[in-house]
Amino acid sequence: MKRTLCLALLLFAAGPAAAETPLPRPRPPEIGGPAEAPRPVAVDPAEAEAAGKACDALADIAVAERAEGMAFDNGCGAPALVRLSAVRLADGKRAELKPAALMRCDAALAVASWVREDVAPAAAALGSGLVRVEVAASYVCRPRNNVKGAVLSEHGRANALDVRALGLADGRTFLVTATDAPALMAEMKRSACARFTTVLGPGADPSHEFHLHVDLAQRRGGYRICQWPLP
Prior knowledge:
single chain, alpha+beta, 9-stranded mixed beta sheet, two-stranded antiparallel ribbon, 11 strands, 27% helix
């Protein structure tokens, strides 16, 4: 009797634990799922040849290495590319781009001309020559401001450059957020807005608090954007 009672108690205690634990309901599949990686497509040889003519014009004012054009089904890439590593200044010296910027040829030509004809003279007015342009970004296949689902950034078209700072021969470095070189920043803004169709500097929006963005985006009616509120 005692043995039977113990066995019954043991079975009663073990019964619920021995039963199969119900599993939670499976999660429904993610709507849309992860975005597919862009796929490469063929570059039109005629388009590449026409686009590459701007690269030939870089020879006299820049140090640039031709790179193979690329194109993807999401619009990224460019038919002709160049890796811009330095700009030849009017005094025969060079201002290096650190790191070198991968850009389409016409955008690289615009950047090199801007640095040579406008930025370098403005820097020289501070008593020392321009020796370095610190690059925050050039070509990268991504949506605008890295926002998922946004339109393709001009960086994805190799049509844009982000500048973080300028370095002078005497060792001084001026971030684009600097407040101690107002004349330099004012001239950078004036000249950039004259040469590029988009200029977004610190204060324009949260995505551009620490760098200056310039590009050659084409818009209807020749519409341009110049947003860089200086102190």
